[in-house]
Amino acid sequence: MSETYNFLFKFLVIGSAGTGKSCILHQFIENKFKEDSNHTIGVEFGSKVVNVGGKSVKLQIWDTAGQERFRSVTRSYYRGAAGALLVYDITSRETYNALTNWLTDARTLASPNIVIVLVGNKKDLEQEREVTFLEASRFAQENELLFLETSALTGENVEETFLKCARSILTKIESGELDPERMGSGIQYGDASLRRLNRQNTSTKRPDCQC
Ligand SMILES: Nc1nc2c(ncn2[C@@H]2O[C@H](COP(=O)(O)OP(=O)(O)OP(=O)(O)O)[C@@H](O)[C@H]2O)c(=O)[nH]1
Q: Ligand 1 site: residues with CB under 6 angstroms?
């Protein structure tokens, strides 16, 4: 796909170690399951241009390490993120119980307006499920999060998760709730939008205007 886009959004992928964050990102970008995924050291990066409601949006995605020993490094990447995927593993209650801490970090260190999608990963392991869909969706509702269950293994809902987050940010931009020009919004205009804005500015000038 062409690198011309209307917007660029900075995204974070956060959550406890082993929940499948790197596999989700890999599935989204490469359309395949990442076999032999190792613990992330610090932070990894990926990007992809997607189409959201007729607009092309470049997602700049930072996949953070879930292990506690990298927390000080990963925290430094939170600033100015427009969206986050907060991932837990549906077969591990421990990763679900840790969500409140991750949420506090995201809301205090990133932008208070950050759009967060709660992601219950490993949906393919239904037999080993420890967290029900219903309780997680209640948690999401109480904490104003979007919510989806995914499988990085089969690819189910992986792309939808990123699109859902991007769609929500775009809606907030269009309604004026989010201002892309505010410092630290995690949003930038891409070439396509800038060209349109320039055209609009030029066409609104009076013919005799010297500016
Ligand atoms: N069955 C199944 N296994 C998965 C899925 N996603 C990830 N895994 C497995 O879960 C383990 C951890 O996946 P990673 O993507 O490395 O986890 P992570 O959250 O990035 O871990 P950290 O980098 O340590 O924070 C790996 O063994 C993956 O193969 C999934 O959707 N289904």
A: 17-23, 37, 39-40, 65-67, 121-122, 124-125, 151-153
Q: Could you tell me which of 49, 45, 50, 58 has the C-alpha nearest to residue 9?
A: 58
Nearest CA, atom 30, ligand 1: 122
189 versus 12: which is more confidently predicted?
Answer: 12
Answer yes or no: are the C-beta atoms of 115 and 145 closer than 8 Å.
no
ipTM above 0.90, yes or no: yes
| Predicted confidence (pLDDT) per residue in 110-122, tens digit | 887 899 999 999 9
Q: Is 127 exposed, middle or buried (0-12, 13-18, 19+ CB in 10 A)?
A: exposed
Ligand 1: which atom is nearest the Cα of residue 25? 15
Q: Which atom of ligand 1 is nearest to the CA of 151?
A: 31
Strands (E), 16-66: 43-52, 55-64
Which tens digits make up the pLDDT trace of 13-29?
999 999 999 999 999 99
Ligand 1 centroid distance, CA of 179 (Å)? 35
End-to-end CA distance of the chain: give it in Å, rounded. Answer: 37
pLDDT computed for residue 183 by the predictor: 79
Burial string for 24-37 (b: 16+ CB within 10 Å, else e) reads bbbbbbeeebbeee
